[in-house]
Amino acid sequence: MIWNWFKRRHSAPVARERLQILLAHERSTLGRSNLVAVLQDEILSVISRHVFIDPDSVQVKMDRGATISTLEIEIEIPNMVAPPLAVTY
Amino acid sequence: MANVVVVTSGKGGVGKTTTTAALGAALAQAGQTVAVVDFDVGLRNLDLVLGAERRVVFDLINVVQGAAKLQQALIRDKRIETLWLLPASQTRDKDALTDEGVARVIDELRQRFDWVLCDSPAGIERGAQLAMRHADQAVIVTNPEVSSVRDSDRIIGLLDAKTVRAERGERIAKHVLVTRFDPARASRGEMLGIADIVEILSLPLLGIIPESQEVLRASNLGTPVVLSNPASAPALAYTEAARRLEGEDLDIVIPAEKRGLFTKLFGRRAA
């Protein structure tokens, strides 16, 4: 409960993170160079040469610190199951 | 030779017009000759914020189209004699502005004034692009709020692509001015902090204008806040921002919240 109260009060870090991710993407699509977005595209293209993955399943995050920066890459790969011959929904 | 500054933001309602009026008045008070130009054709408001709404005869479009001379359209402020306003048209639309016409008017203003401050319309379309086209410097007005920061980022991209300086491969000096900042909420983690905004936009900070009732009072009165209450927090912040625009190196102090016993005990602002 206390944790919920804490989360409710501290919405600024959420705003900050959402903006960083969104702007990294928008800057790349609007022609401004951005490392995170370039990395995301290239990682996606390398992986998808070997495995079928969803474009949204690659998450690249960069945090800039005072002395070091960290690069966090998370890739979701679906479990390999043979595709059914006919798909019905 | 004048400095042409565009006051822009992308998003509407963040304080471009208030900022143009306040920075213009502060620069003029410091002895500079200043023209503030309203580019918001069809929705002019700089005249109202400056208290000159009943003195508009000719406007920017009349001058751009050659129907009036620049000196016929310029309105001299009644309080500061080095401050002049070139109002926008209220009846025409932005398509009446031509690229060549705007270039000619800005050129003429450059020769007569130390500073030309262009109040941009909201958006990223033609009107906003014409306002920034000839700028040497840009003041990007940003509220500590996600949609405002995102739109500022778009505008920064446009400034680097669509201005005459950018096309010539020259630098356009860009500064962020954070308005409507509430230090108490930021310190409680409820509002984006100054460091967050500066880091996300990676631009130098021109100033921080605290959220204040004085800003609305100033616009009610038709007097820039630096004149309506010169000792108020937003007036001091605008005056310092104007000095930084002139190239002075002043430390920026993040406004601290003034807390009385009541708010200390109950953790909320009485307002």
TrEMBL record, chain A:
Keywords: Cell cycle, Cell division
Family matches, as InterPro entries: MinE (IPR005527), MinE_sf (IPR036707)
Superkingdom of the organism of origin: Bacteria
The UniProt record lists the keyword Transcription regulation: no
This protein's record includes keyword Zinc: no
Pfam families: MinE
Any one GO biological process: cell division
UniProt-listed SUPFAM superfamilies: Cell division protein MinE topological specificity domain
Similarity annotation: Belongs to the MinE family.
Free-text function comment from the UniProt entry: Prevents the cell division inhibition by proteins MinC and MinD at internal division sites while permitting inhibition at polar sites. This ensures cell division at the proper site by restricting the formation of a division septum at the midpoint of the long axis of the cell.
Protein name, UniProt field: Cell division topological specificity factor
UniProtKB/TrEMBL annotation, chain B:
Every CobQ/CobB/MinD/ParA nucleotide binding domain range: 5-225
Pfam family, one: CbiA
Keywords in alphabetical order: ATP-binding, Cell cycle, Cell division, Nucleotide-binding, Septation
InterPro entries, sorted: CobQ/CobB/MinD/ParA_Nub-bd_dom (IPR002586), MinD (IPR010223), MinD_FleN (IPR025501), P-loop_NTPase (IPR027417), ParA/MinD_ATPase (IPR050625)
UniProt subunit comment: Interacts with MinC and FtsZ.
Function: ATPase required for the correct placement of the division site. Cell division inhibitors MinC and MinD act in concert to form an inhibitor capable of blocking formation of the polar Z ring septums. Rapidly oscillates between the poles of the cell to destabilize FtsZ filaments that have formed before they mature into polar Z rings.
Family note: Belongs to the ParA family. MinD subfamily.
Protein name: Septum site-determining protein MinD
Gene this chain is encoded by: minD
